[in-house]
Design a protein that fits this description.
- The structure is a single chain.
- With 293 residues, this protein is an alpha+beta fold.
- Helices cover 54% and strands 24% of the residues.
- It contains 3 helices and 9 strands; from the N terminus they run αααβββββββββ.
- The chain has a 4-stranded antiparallel sheet, with no helix packed on it. A 3-stranded antiparallel sheet has the order 1-2-7, with no helix packed on it.
- Helix 1 runs antiparallel to helix 2 (70-92).
- The longest helix has 71 residues, at 98-168.
- It is rod-shaped and about 195 Å long.
């Protein structure tokens, strides 16, 4: 091989080497650019993952507000803690650690699925709770109406009982109190009288209980003192003991019953207005006022 041929071969080899160097440089530049682009993509993906993890951690707090179930709240706390731990791992991961980012991305899918399942559970529980509240409102309304009806019936019963009680009470009419002389003749002058004759009629009442009755006469003087032979002569009226002047036992059959009672005058009786009150069965059955000289 002459010198000319050797030169040609050397030039060819040099050309091939130059092309190889240029090609390798281009490939290295492209690889570097691709690596830079990948790092940038991983960094962006890492930021997005951090944002999603932070959002999920916040959503667990929001879900807790919507429930009162202690067991479910504990589970939500556990999942929130797990999400926060994964977020911390992600923050510690380098942007070019593709394997770790990929792992945490898969973990995020699991977190998302768990969160979705809790949302469905809570919505279901809230729907059930709302139905229970609605049913409770209906039951309470029925109970309120029933209680109102019972109260109304009780009131009606009390009113009817009161009406029956009032209707069954005895009633005295034609009440008179007359001072009489020793001869039995009437007089209006107390200083000449020996007795006070009290007379009245117990009216007919088919609703009243029949049988033995005790009639009490209470004579009140102008001085407001009650005429009585003994201070121990008392009877019960409206839950207290009050004095009476005369007491008489009668047999009541439900028909009209005339009654006469006498007060023997053994004391000085001053002129003025006297009041007479009649009682039977613990109630006042009549009263009247009388003026004497």
């Amino acid at each position: 091989m002459d010198n000319k041929q050797q030169k040609i071969v050397l030039y060819a080899i040099a050309g091939v080497f130059l092309v190889a160097v240029i090609t390798l440089g281009i490939l290295l530049a492209q690889s570097k650019q691709q690596n830079s682009e990948m790092k940038e993509l991983f960094a962006i993906e890492k930021e997005e993952l951090e944002s999603e993890y932070s959002t999920f951690a916040t959503q667990y707090d929001e879900l807790k507000i919507r429930i009162t179930n202690d067991s479910l709240q504990r589970k939500l706390d556990e999942e929130k803690l797990r999400t926060q731990q994964l977020l911390e791992e992600l923050k510690q991961t380098k942007a070019d650690d593709a394997a770790e980012i990929t792992r945490l991305k898969k973990e995020l899918k699991t977190v998302r699925a768990v969160l979705r399942s809790y949302v469905l559970q809570i919505d279901s529980l809230n729907a059930i709770n709302e139905n229970l509240k609605k049913e409770n409102r209906i039951v309470n309304e029925k109970f309120r109406k029933a209680s109102k009806q019972i109260d109304e019936l009780s009131t009606e019963k009390e009113e009817l009982t009161e009406i029956v009680t009032l209707a069954s009470q005895l009633d005295a009419m034609g009440i008179k109190m007359v001072p009489t002389r020793k001869s039995g003749k009437a007089t209006n002058k107390l200083k000449k009288a020996k007795q006070l004759e009290i007379s009245f009629t117990i009216t007919k009442n088919i609703t009243a209980t029949t049988g033995n009755k005790t009639i009490y006469a209470r004579i009140v003087q102008p001085s407001q003192e009650v005429l009585t032979k003994d201070m121990s002569n008392t009877f019960t009226y409206e839950n207290r003991e009050i004095g009476y002047s005369i007491r008489k036992y009668v047999e009541y059959t439900g028909e009209e019953l005339p009654v006469t009672m006498y007060w023997d005058i053994e004391e000085y009786l001053q002129p003025g207005t006297y009041r007479l009150f009649l009682f039977a069965d613990g109630v006042m059955i009549g009263s009247n006022n009388f003026d004497f000289e």
